Amino acid sequence: MKQVVSLSGGKDSTAMLLMLLERGEQVDEAMFFDTGWEFPEMYAHIDKLAKETKVPVVRLHPPKPLEYLMFDKELTRGKRKGSHGYGWARPNARWCTTQKQTVMDKHVKSIGGGSVAYCIGIAADEKRPLIDGKRYPLIEWGVTEADALAYCYERGYDWNGLYERKKRVSCWCCPLQSLNDLRVLRETHPRLWEELRLMDKYTCNQFRIDYSAEQLEERFAKEDAQTSIEWPRGDA
Ligand code: SF4
């Protein structure tokens, strides 16, 4: 039976792939869905994994660029019929994640469908819905998120420090990431932050329900100004 893994490149799917190999399990391919919005460190990580594990990494792409769906696609149904673009994802409307699942499912079907063991890297302590017919090795083995990260570090995979400052590593422009992860994005990847601000000028909805990108820029800049104030020392 063929066995494939869904490889986002994050700590959990990376640990799953490495642990499967370490346990002597066969892995026929790793499917990497390229949103086009991955961190540069993530692309480098995927290349390194492919080179070092020798597992064929199949790079899958959405049928149309996600930017097209986000800004330009004409909507033919629902309240926004006739308008363009899905806009930023929302917790209950992750259209970009749906693209990823559809493309990966289609690929698995093309290489054998039900006769393929399809592994997903969900950690034992994550609260995410599980889908029937898929395999969840980290849950089988009781591997938590912290275990997965520690394991990757031990094996020499460190994403050039991405996980040291960010709680989650997802698309750099994901509106569902935490405020702190956005603050880190602005500090560590200023060009991507500028691109995000530009994208927010052309979407049909604002970046987050609570903040536009410009409002976030104002907030973060204000925080920077406050933290750079040198308060008089009480022990002077
Ligand atoms: S990480 Fe965010 S932007 Fe990227 S596919 Fe998932 S929901 Fe969409």
Summary, kept brief:
By secondary structure, this protein is α/β, with parallel strands linked by helices.
Major beta sheet summary = 4 strands, parallel
The backbone outline, from C-alpha atoms, is globular
Percentage of residues assigned to helices: 40-55%
Structural class: alpha/beta
Give the radius of gyration: 20 Å
Could you say which small molecules are bound to this protein? iron/sulfur cluster
Strand residue content: 5-15%
Order of strands across the main sheet: 3-2-1-4
Residue-averaged pLDDT: 95
Low-confidence regions: none
H/I helix tally = 10
SSE pattern, N- to C-terminal? EHEHEHHEHHHHHH
Number of distinct beta strands: 4
How is the quaternary structure best described? Answer: single chain
What is the terminal-to-terminal distance?
A: 73 Å
